Records
---
Amino acid sequence: MAEKSETIIEVKNAKKIYRMGIERICAVDNVSFTIQRGEFCCLYGASGSGKSTLLNLMAGIEKLTSGQIKIKGKNINRMSENGLAKFRQNNLGFVFQSYNLLSSMTALENVEMPLVFKHIKPKIRRKMAKDILVKVGLGSRMKHKPTEMSGGQQQRVGIARAFVGNPEIVFADEPTGNLDSKTSKEVMDLIKELARINQLTIVMVTHDRRLAEYADKIIHIFDGKVENIEIIEKKETNSNPNEVDLRADSKEDGPVIDLLQDQPVTG
Ligand code: ADP
Ligand code: MG
C-alpha cells in the first residue's frame, strides 16, 4: 500500500521554555524526530513529561523557544499568524480530551463548523458532515446537542469534526482520557480505521501503554526529552479494507463506518 515513505513532520532540536516569574520550565528539551506520511504515531510518557506541549508545538498552537518544526516541508514557525491559521485549516484536524464541542449546537452543526471556516457551500458541507456522522455511527444522533449524548458519542462527534475536511494530519491529545475502557477501545478503533482508510497521519498523546500500542511508532517522552523511539511490529491482519469488520463497535447506531465508501470530498 504505502510505497515509499515520505516525511510529513520533521521536528529538529525543538525546545520550549516556559517562564514562571523567575523560574524557567523546560517543557520540551531539544527534541528531534520525524513522522512519515500515513503513520500512526504516539507521544507516550508520564503526566508532566511535556507531551501536550510538544503536540501543541507541532500543531502551531504554541511557539517554539528554539529549533524548527516542518510540516509538509514548510517551516511552521516562520509562518505569519494568518498563514498558520490557513495552513491549519487546510491540513490539520484536532481531537481533544474534553471534546470541545459547542454546547448550543447540534452534532451536525458542530461537524459542519470547520467547513464553514473553509467557505464550503452550505449544501455541500451539510452532506459532508452527514456522511461522516453516519460513518462514525451517529446517523441517528445528528440533531442531538452535546448534553444529549454520552461521552463516547460526543467524542465520535469530535472525531467526525476532525476528519470531515479530510485533513492530512490529525492531532489528538488524550482523546479517550475521559472515557471508560470499553468506549476508549471503540474510539481508538474508529480513529485508527478512519486514518487507515484515508491514509492520514495521526499524532496522538497518551500516558496509557495499551492505547500507545495502537500506533506504528511510539515516541517515549521523559522529562521533556525523547527517551526512545519504538517501532511496533504489525501483525498484518487486515491489508484488505473489505475484510475489516467494525460491527462490534456500532452498538446503538448501525454501521460505524462504510468501508467501501471512498474518501470524503476535499474542499
Ligand atoms: P504532559 O502533557 O506530558 O502531561 P505538559 O506538556 O502539559 O505535560 O507539561 C510539561 C511541563 O510544562 C509541566 O511541568 C507543566 O507544568 C509545564 N507547563 C505546561 N504548560 C505550561 C504553561 N502554559 N506555563 C508554564 N508551564 C507549563
Ligand atoms: Mg497533557
---
Amino acid sequence: MRPHSKNKIRLFVETPLTSAAEVDLSADAAHYLCNVMRLNEGDTLSCFNAADGEYDARIIRAGKKNCRVRILSQIKAPAVSPDIWLLFAPLKKDKTDFVIEKATELGVRAIIPVITRNTITERVKTERFIAQAKEASEQCERTDVPVVRPPVALGTLLDSWPAERILFFLDESLGGADCVSTFDQLKGQPAAVLVGPEGGFTPGEKAELDNLPFVRGISLGPRILRAETAACAALAVWQAVAGDWKKGE
Ligand code: SAH
C-alpha cells in the first residue's frame, strides 16, 4: 500500500466494487490508512481490483482495526495485463524482492518461482511475494495484480506445461535465437520467460529445455547478465515487441 504519484493512496481490495457500495477494509488496510497514513473520516483514496477497475472512495468510518469506505465513481475501467508470465529461480532475498516488484511494473500476468538444480534458495515465502506484487500494483497504477504461484520444480513445471503457451528460455550460452525477431514471430500467443539462477542452467536442464516443442531458447546479447537484469530486460523487450507498449494496440 503506497501513495501513488499524486499522493492519493491506491488500495487493492478483493471485495466487489460498485458506486455507492460500502466496503469494510481488511485489518491490515485499516491499520495502514488510519494509523500509518493518519487518514480520517471524509478523506479520499482509490480502490481497485481486476474485475471492477478503479474507483474513488471516501472513508466513512475510521478505527484502529477497522475502516469503512464508500465507493464513489469509477475512474478506470478494468484492464488485464498482457499474457506474459515470469518464471524465475528464486535469488537472495533483496534480489527476489526486486524481481517481483519490477516484473509487476513491467506488466506480467503471473509470477512463478521455479526451483532448478543451481537454485540457491529453496525457501520461498509465497505469501510475502503476493504482498509484494499487490504493493507494486498499487504503486504502478495497474488495476490487476499478478498471480503469484507457489514454487515448483523445473521438471514438474515442464511436465504439466500448457502446450499453447510459448516458453522463452533465456539461454546465456549464446546459442539462443535473437529475442526481438523471435518475440515478433510469436506475438499474439500466450507466453512466458524463464530466467535461470545465478549459477545458470545445468547442461542437462538446457538439453531438456531445448528438446521441448513449446520452448524457444533466446539470447539477450553477448554479455552475461545477472538473473535480475535478465528478467527485466527480457520482459521489457517482450512488452515493446509483442506486449502493450505500442500505442494503439
Ligand atoms: N552462471 C552463469 C550465468 C547465469 S546468469 C554463467 O556464469 O555462465 C543468470 C540467468 O540469466 C541465466 O541462467 C539466463 O537465464 C539469464 N541470462 C543472463 N545473461 C543472458 C544472456 N546474455 N542471454 C540470455 N539469458 C541470459
